[in-house]
């Protein structure tokens, strides 16, 4: 029989972020680097691949809303970008 975990569920910000999964999200900007106001917030994702899949599905909608570039961010660390959202 496996011992039960004594770890309590995460209910708020953890004391030590390295124990928990990081949040992946996109910083959406104009082509000049200014923030873009969207109708809804850009979601956070549990993995890089989930974040990349989402951007692949909605990049045209983001571009139509005035976005020109996106930067992938893991918590506060820039992973890559800015990357153009232009179809050209």
Summary of the model, kept short:
By secondary structure, the protein is α+β, with helices and mostly antiparallel strands.
Describe this structure in words.
- The protein has a domain at 21-34 and 43-84.
- It has one helix at residues 48-64; strands spanning 24-29, 69-74, 77-84.
- A 3-stranded antiparallel β-sheet has the order 1-2-3, covered by helices on one side.
- By secondary structure, the chain is an alpha+beta fold.
Low-pLDDT segments: 1-14
> Distance N terminus to C terminus?
58 Å
User: Which class best fits the helix and strand makeup?
Assistant: alpha+beta
The value of Rg in angstroms is 17 Å
* Binned strand content: 15-25%
Overall 3D form: globular
User: Secondary-structure element sequence?
Assistant: EHEE
> What's the number of extended β-strand segments?
3
Helix content range of the residues, please?
10-25%
Largest sheet, in brief, is: 3 strands, antiparallel
Number of helices: 1
Mean pLDDT, nearest integer?
A: 83
What spatial order of strands do you see in the largest sheet?
1-2-3
């Amino acid at each position: 029989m496996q011992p039960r975990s004594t770890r309590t569920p995460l209910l708020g910000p953890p004391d030590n972020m390295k124990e928990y999964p990081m949040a992946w999200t996109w910083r959406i900007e104009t082509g000049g680097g200014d923030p873009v106001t969207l109708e809804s917030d850009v979601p956070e994702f549990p993995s890089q691949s989930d974040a990349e899949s989402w951007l692949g599905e909605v990049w045209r909608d983001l571009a139509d809303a005035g976005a020109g570039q996106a930067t992938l961010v893991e918590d506060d660390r820039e992973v890559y970008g800015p990357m153009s959202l232009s179809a050209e």
